[in-house]
Write a structure and sequence with these properties.
Length: 183
């Protein structure tokens, strides 16, 4: 009985280490969102995103704390957190998705590999399907993932007060850069 337990424990540890060989992560993913109108350009930057990517299955999960976005003006940061994304009520945004056909990314050969990404973005308590394109850049054994997509604020129940509707775009561009490390 003791031998069976030890064998089962060894097998579980081995399978976990094999699976970990296919996983990459970052705790410093950069997320930038841009709202641009003829009257004003607003840029929020967050360099504390966490991301785990399984190169074998194509699955990945991404999370970012909303209060970690930094703005050029402190007042913008305050309005962003209190009036728009309500970060005390909805502290983080997440994306859970898949890279279609992850075998197209050759981790052993330097290059830029275009990918299609599908998943669900949850923000401000609302979850929506998102599909976009991105790239994985493999260089010297390291992987950098990049993607851009556009969201409509109303889709996530983020309201723009009529007083500032000409200064804040209804659609915002989101850019993500993940510099992965092997788990």
């Amino acid at each position: 009985m003791k031998k069976q337990f030890i064998l089962a424990l060894f097998l579980a540890l081995f399978l976990n280490s094999v699976n970990a060989q296919d996983r990459y992560f970052t705790r410093g993913a950069k997320v930038v969102f841009v709202s641009e109108t003829p009257l004003e350009k607003i840029v929020g930057t967050n360099s504390q995103g966490t991301n785990v990517y399984d190169t074998k299955t194509g699955q990945f999960e991404f999370a970012v704390l909303m209060k970690s976005f930094v703005f050029e003006k402190a007042l913008l940061e305050e309005h962003f957190n209190e009036n728009y994304v309500e970060s005390s009520k909805y502290p983080k945004s997440t994306f859970k998705g898949m890279v279609e056909d992850p075998s197209k990314v050759n981790l052993t050969k330097d290059g830029i590999y275009p990918v299609k990404i599908k998943g669900q973005l949850t923000m401000h308590g609302v979850t929506k399907d998102v599909a976009t394109e991105g790239v994985f850049e493999v260089k010297g054994g390291k992987i950098i993932g990049k993607s851009n997509f556009i969201i409509t604020l109303a889709d996530y129940k983020i309201e723009i007060p009529s007083l500032v509707k000409d200064k804040i775009s209804k659609d915002v561009k989101i850019s993500v850069i993940s510099d992965y490390q092997k788990m």
